[in-house]
């Protein structure tokens, strides 16, 4: 930790936020100070002196004082920077405790928390006894007094149903337990947690949101509790625990000062950290709601795996995802995380491109075939059936049967097709019907070949075969070597004997959208060893209908699955509304089980989402253009940039919105398959709902959420003819809306014209139609837009 004789100056999680708010001249002074301090902490010009106990020191930074915690040797942690007067006032304000539950070292300022809660009414003993039902206070009620005028005489504390011991048991910092129990309004609670240690913040907000003690224990505390009994006097051990969040590198402080600090690179949540560092005895899966840091975990995992491999010239780790633009984004972020050295050792490529590369490398002679997408394939099916005057089968059904069952399971012969599993396909087919389908499929693939085209799935399946053959040869080789007692074989074909798996580790982002052929390909590219496949994804965000059962594809994740639940992106308000869009559906876990978003939560806050209906599409465009104008105006006034995006259900609408924005002088660009056109990173982005997967914006407008568009009226034709498909299509359409809504960091508007989408909960759809969208800075967004579905946060 310490660097020879020089001192290290690290940063405590949350101190970065405070530092960023400091006046410019103080930041400048801190910039100079860090150099001097590292050279020699006790240099008299630093005014270095002991504050309290053996560990707390202060040092001079202009008119301010740096509060420093001595971690050992020459290692110091910058805890806070305060005006000189405040520092020496009451030294008891600084607590540096080892949390009794998590074992984390927590350094915080009790007085700052007290001050941030404002003047609080009477202490707990004057508070009325808990109500008979003893239900935890729901968030809605909790925030009531703030919003409905003057507080009643003896307001009931938000956490009146809990005792000091319970809060301690949940891991609330000891120094803040009694204060937390006196808080009566949500805004004061938000003040308290601003300065509280992270875990205390998470627990208190979850309780205030109405989650009960048991759920908070299960979802928030237990995952970060220290596995061994905690010695609250042992600082050295506390330092090594993942729950202790301090920066690792000396340069981090400098980056905060330069406004270039990316917290995701440094402060992993302990639950994230654990997943990154764990050794898995086979494939592992991480799920979690939008914004819980799955991609971040995947990136850190890649770094962890590469670090363990050491330097070299090959690319032994594959990082793949579904979309091209997301692969580009992963590459950029990986570079940011670990520099060129890391990137040089990782193959970052989207899965279809990887498949094409393998097929063309293998010299199958098919590389000149043009690749077509699923819709084009469905049209080809339709054309073929029309030409054959074949009316028994529907083009969509055959296309799905071919791609999901036949290509999906690498079915190569009629006999194999007779035996193939058709899980999730709905409609049953007899043996005679299978024979019929098989014949049509053969005819269809010949037709594509004659036309010089093939589908992405065919490419993936061909690539999976190439890699499958290689894996089989490796296995045969090993067996032969084992039989020969480990002696070198003088095999005729040396290249055969030297065969290796393409990668040592495979990491997959957006795993929910990969199809069976993709998984077969990935499985074949890496040996069955520890840490072979690490995948992250969320089936609630599946938008391409590729349902899989990993176990049946040779990827056994049983016992190696984990879930992230804390959103780092969306506010509590947006998260509550977005969950309401998911309805009562159930969701799979990429295997035979189900996944849920239980425990999904956020500690971020912001205005409530605004739900807004008007009569016509033209009026909807006018409203969104006006809102974007206001957002941009406000950002300009504050000298900041605000990222804004508009998502719409159909392509035509993209052009219409874009044109109108440009007409009124707002720079706008439509999102293509590779993201925004270059040079348009700061324009307003407009795109179909599909384009928003994996992205995020400060302000998100989801428009055209109208009956017949979301979901598309086309899906209704399956209601009677193919109920299984109907359910799948509806679920996918819901997911699409959910994905778009959860791209929002700070504000979300959902609008429609005419009849609202059936996915919008009733209370929202009935919102007053003509209420204009509030100004972005306005607090609340209650009128017409207030929506927190019952139990949405539970
Ligand atoms: N430990 C962390 N510290 C700070 N920021 C974080 C952390 N983890 C994630 N984030 C931030 O939260 C946001 C969402 O993270 P990420 O994209 O990894 O989530 P995700 O689970 O992959 O989301 P989605 O499923 O919606 O694609 C990003 O802005 C990321 O930088």
Automatic annotation (TrEMBL):
Keyword ATP-binding applies: yes
Enzyme nomenclature, EC number: 5.6.2.4
GO molecular function: endonuclease activity; helicase activity
Composition bias type Pro residues, residue spans: 121-135
Domain named UvrD-like helicase ATP-binding: residues: 267-571
Name of the protein in its database record: DNA 3'-5' helicase
Primary enzyme class: isomerase
Signal peptide residue numbers: none
Regions annotated as coiled coil: none
Positions of region (Disordered): 115-158, 761-794
Keywords: ATP-binding, Endonuclease, Helicase, Hydrolase, Isomerase, Nuclease, Nucleotide-binding
Listed Gene3D superfamilies: P-loop containing nucleotide triphosphate hydrolases, RelE-like
Xref: SUPFAM superfamilies: P-loop containing nucleoside triphosphate hydrolases, RelE-like
Binding site for ATP: 288-295
Reaction equation(s) it catalyzes: Couples ATP hydrolysis with the unwinding of duplex DNA by translocating in the 3'-5' direction; ATP + H2O = ADP + phosphate + H(+)
InterPro entries noted in UniProt: DNA_helicase_UvrD-like_C (IPR014017), DNA_helicase_UvrD/REP (IPR000212), P-loop_NTPase (IPR027417), RelE/ParE_toxin_dom_sf (IPR035093), UvrD-like_ATP-bd (IPR014016)
């Amino acid at each position: 930790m310490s660097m020879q004789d020089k001192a290290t100056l690290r940063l405590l999680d949350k101190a970065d936020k405070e530092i960023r708010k400091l006046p410019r001249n103080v930041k400048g002074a801190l910039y100079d100070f860090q150099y001097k301090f590292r050279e020699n902490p006790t240099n008299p010009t630093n005014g270095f002196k002991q504050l309290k106990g053996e560990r707390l020191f202060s040092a001079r930074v202009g008119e301010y004082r740096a509060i420093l915690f001595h971690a050992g040797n020459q290692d110091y942690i910058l805890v806070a920077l305060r005006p000189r007067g405040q520092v020496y006032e009451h030294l008891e304000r600084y607590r540096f405790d080892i949390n009794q539950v998590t074992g984390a070292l927590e350094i915080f300022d009790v007085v700052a928390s007290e001050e941030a809660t404002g003047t609080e009414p009477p202490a707990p003993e004057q508070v009325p006894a808990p109500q008979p039902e003893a239900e935890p206070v729901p968030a809605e009620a909790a925030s009531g007094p703030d919003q409905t005028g003057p507080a009643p005489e003896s307001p009931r504390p938000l956490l009146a149903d809990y005792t000091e011991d319970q809060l301690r048991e949940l891991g609330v910092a000891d120094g803040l337990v009694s204060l937390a129990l006196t808080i009566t309004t949500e805004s004061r609670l938000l003040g308290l947690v601003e300065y509280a240690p992270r875990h205390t913040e998470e627990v208190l907000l979850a309780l205030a949101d109405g989650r009960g003690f048991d759920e908070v224990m299960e979802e928030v505390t237990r995952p970060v509790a220290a596995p061994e009994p905690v010695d609250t006097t042992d600082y050295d051990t506390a330092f090594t625990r993942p729950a202790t969040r301090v920066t690792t590198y000396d340069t981090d402080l400098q980056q905060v000062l330069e406004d270039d600090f990316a917290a995701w690179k440094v402060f992993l949540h302990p639950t994230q950290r654990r997943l990154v560092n764990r050794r898995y005895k086979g494939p592992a899966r991480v799920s979690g709601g939008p914004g819980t840091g799955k991609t971040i975990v995947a990136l850190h995992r890649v770094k962890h795996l590469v670090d363990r491999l050491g330097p070299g010239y090959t690319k032994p780790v594959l990082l793949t995802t579904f979309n091209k633009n997301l692969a580009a984004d992963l590459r950029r972020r990986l570079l940011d995380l670990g520099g060129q050295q890391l990137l040089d050792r990782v193959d970052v490529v989207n899965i279809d491109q990887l498949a094409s590369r393998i097929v063309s490398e293998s010299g199958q002679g098919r590389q000149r075939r043009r690749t077509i997408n699923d819709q084009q394939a469905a049209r080809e099916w339709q054309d073929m059936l029309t030409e054959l005057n074949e009316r028994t089968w529907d083009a969509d059904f055959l296309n799905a049967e071919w791609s999901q069952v036949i290509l999906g399971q690498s079915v190569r012969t009629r006999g194999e097709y007779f035996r193939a599993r058709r899980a999730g396909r709905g409609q049953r087919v007899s043996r005679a019907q299978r024979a019929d389908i098989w014949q049509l499929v053969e005819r269809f693939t010949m037709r594509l070949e004659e036309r010089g085209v093939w589908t992405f799935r065919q490419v993936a399946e061909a690539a999976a075969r190439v890699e499958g053959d290689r894996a089989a040869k490796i296995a045969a080789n090993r067996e032969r070597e084992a039989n020969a007692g480990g002696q070198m074989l003088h095999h005729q074909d040396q290249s055969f004997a030297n065969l290796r798996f393409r990668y040592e580790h495979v990491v997959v982002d957006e795993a929910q959208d990969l199809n069976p052929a993709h998984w077969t390909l990935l499985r074949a590219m890496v040996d069955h060893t520890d840490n072979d496949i690490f995948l992250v994804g969320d089936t609630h965000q599946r938008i391409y209908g590729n349902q899989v059962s990993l176990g049946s594809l040779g990827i056994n994740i049983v016992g190696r699955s984990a879930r992230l639940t804390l959103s780092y992106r969306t506010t509590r308000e947006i998260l509550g509304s977005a969950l309401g869009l998911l309805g009562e559906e159930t969701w799979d876990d990429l295997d035979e089980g189900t996944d849920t978003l239980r425990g999904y939560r956020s500690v971020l806050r912001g205005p409530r989402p605004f739900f807004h209906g008007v009569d016509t599409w033209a009026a909807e465009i006018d409203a969104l253009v006006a809102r974007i104008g206001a957002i941009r105006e406000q950002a300009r006034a504050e000298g900041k940039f605000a990222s804004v995006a508009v998502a719409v259900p159909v392509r035509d609408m993209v052009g219409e919105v874009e044109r109108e924005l440009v007409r009124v002088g707002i720079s706008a660009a439509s999102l293509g398959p590779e993201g925004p056109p270059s040079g348009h990173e700061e324009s307003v982005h407009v795109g179909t709902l599909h384009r928003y997967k994996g992205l995020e914006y400060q302000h998100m407008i989801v428009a055209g959420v109208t009956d017949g568009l979301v979901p598309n009226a086309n899906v209704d034709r399956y209601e009677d003819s193919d109920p299984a498909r109907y359910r799948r299509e509806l679920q996918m359409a819901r997911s699409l809306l959910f994905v778009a809504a959860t791209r929002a960091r700070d504000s979300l508007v959902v609008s429609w014209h005419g009849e609202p989408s059936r996915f919008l909960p009733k209370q929202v759809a009935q919102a007053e139609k003509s209420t204009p969208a509030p100004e972005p800075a306005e607090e609340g967004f209650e009128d017409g837009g207030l929506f927190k579905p019952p139990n949405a946060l539970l």
